[in-house]
């Protein structure tokens, strides 16, 4: 069901050479970009009418309007299963507890007497958040997007999720209920690239946003790439990934269940076990079969994911070599199930989120750890972070110098300006002190 890659015996290569040996899903955003381009431009030119036509084409339902009525949000919350409501409320509470602590304060540095630089953090004015609605329903993604935006102080928050024919063209009612719980009343029935285009360009019913965040399929990722520069984005999210670094202390039942938990997202989902224990590898492989047989989404998601080229059991000589492998891989989710897991986790450099020991599975982070589950994929954890309050804040430097403080450093500024052949830069300093501005050559 799952392949093996044996990296034992020889010294591991460095950098890209090691990354090339590791499994990864094919995810060609550039190819998808050409397909979303006409969709995005149609939304640009026809606005809501294009959104309605695309909902009929892609989601099989003809909408009367794109924006979800307030009554539908209220009804969804009223009809929400009490147990689901309680779980969402606890997820929101824990997410707020963590994200509230992330907000940076204004800080002033006194560089010299009379000269200071202040850094203040200002929230993005308006954001468009995306909650997927394809193979599954993700109210947890509503929580993970909305909470950090709210804690950052974003004043205008809109959310989009695909129209569902089963629910008369509205997004899934659990999505709507989660929005209502969070106090988000601007919700749109729009999916994929059309939702990103709606937020980027604006339409008759939806003002344009400064930023778009949230996970999605390849069409969402391609649309984000298309609009990069016009709007801010969080990331071009690819298929979900789990990597487990484990030794012979790990429980194969736990490891197998965690690999399956991510494989059930998508046939392109990646499940990777890195271990120095051939016995654990054998036990996990043996455990996969009955656990897969006992769950749902077997043939359309889990089996293709586990048997695909993006998933594998990687055998290494030791935990040190395993750390090199997981750092090269840069997993979205990385579990450490080894002896002294905390110390091992402290040595990891590249991961979207790290889960320590047998009692912190990825599923906990997906819903109720308090951490955020919108994380970098496709190896992007080597340079990017997951969604947080900081994602919605902009740092602005405020420079405040007196005349004496400028005079003290003026000669250095002029020298550097002339070294860069930018004499007008120096002239802007000289003019303040009555210095003669040199003639242009």
Jot down its keywords:
single chain, about 450 residues, alpha/beta, 6-stranded parallel beta sheet, 5-stranded parallel beta sheet, disordered C terminus
Give a structural overview.
The chain is α/β, with parallel strands linked by helices and 441 residues long. It has helices spanning 15-19, 29-46, 48-59, 70-78, 82-100, 139-152, 173-182, 192-201, 218-227, 252-263, 278-293, 298-307, 319-329, 341-346, 362-367, 403-419, 423-430, and strands at residues 3-6, 107-112, 115-123, 126-130, 156-161, 187-189, 211-213, 232-233, 241-246, 270-275, 312-315, 333-337, 353-356, 393-401. Helix 2 (29-46) packs across helix 9 and helix 4 crosses helix 7. The longest helix is centred in the first third of the chain and has 19 residues, at 82-100. It starts with a strand and ends in an 11-residue tail after the last helix. The model is unreliable at 437-441 (pLDDT under 50).
